[in-house]
Amino acid sequence: MSIRLDQTVPFGRSLREYELMFSLSAVDRRGRILDCAAGPASFNAELTAAGGTVCSLDPLYQFTGVEIQRQFTATLDHVIAQVRTTPQHWVWSHHRSPDDLRRNRITVMEHFLSDYRNGRGTCRYVCGSLPTLPFVRDQFDLALSSHFLFLYSDHFTEAFHLEAIRTLLQVAREVRIFPLIALRAERSQHLNPVCTQLRREGYTLSIERVEYELQRGGNEMLRLRRP
Ligand SMILES: C[S@@+](CC[C@H](N)C(=O)[O-])C[C@H]1O[C@@H](n2cnc3c(N)ncnc32)[C@H](O)[C@@H]1O
Q: CA 66: distance to chain centroid?
């Protein structure tokens, strides 16, 4: 097992990491994007500053910035220590080492916090939890979900995944999910049954290799479109 945790980790990723994880094109970046389970990612702050339109959703947004930072700080060294003890599970290409990863996660958190203080309570940071969403049909062109669905497969059931993905596909025409492995660094046990069921329901799905890999084997994204 690469990381053992009882809850989701309040870690965030940068715009560059999102671009790589989701193979985001210039056209994608110009669309209305939902980042679901966005946590303390700086994707919203960075893309908004670059002229994009992003709405981030996460149950974490019930908390103030100070409270989120406290949760992050309480978890940071524990996670980095687990990374160090499982070197076989990590690929040091984007981040160069556990120390570099730690520094980069802190930078992202600081960037997120500087934006969150103003953006909280607006439609850019919305408090909510899958499998339901407070949005209308087609409110977004693209919905992204990074490091939540499939990653926490031992905490969330197959039925939860199906319901969450169907909901995402209501509010956005296209959904992309990354990674497809669970915390134990193997493909999620829910992936095949979820894909089979959604294909049966008429959705179009593809599993695509991407240019980002931190957890070894975590270099695939699921792309889904409505019938
Ligand atoms: C590891 S973080 C990923 C943050 C961000 N997507 C990224 O990759 O940088 C996982 C996030 O999932 C959120 N989460 C937990 N349960 C959720 C739910 N039911 N619906 C939406 N998000 C949830 C957590 O609050 C946490 O911020």
A: 21
Calculate the CA 145 to chain-centre distance: 4
Measured CA to CA, the distance from residue 12 to residue 148 in angstroms comes to: 11
Taking 70 as the threshold, does the pLDDT of residue 1 lie above it? no
Pocket test for ligand 1, best of 58, 72, 107 (most atoms within 8 A of CB): 58
- Ligand 1 centroid to residue 92 C-alpha, Å: 23
**Which conformational region is residue 150 in: left (phi greater than 0), alpha (psi within -120 to 50 degrees), or beta?**
left
Burial class (CB in 10 A: 0-12, 13-18, 19+), 82: middle
- pLDDT the model gives residue 185: 82
Q: Which two three-digit tokens encode residue 39?
A: 């946590």
- pLDDT digit string, tens, across residues 157-210: 999 999 999 999 999 999 999 999 998 889 999 999 999 999 999 999 999 999
Inside any domain, residue 135: yes
Is 3 domain-assigned? no
Domain housing 208: 15-225
Centre of ligand 1 to C-alpha 197, Å, is 24
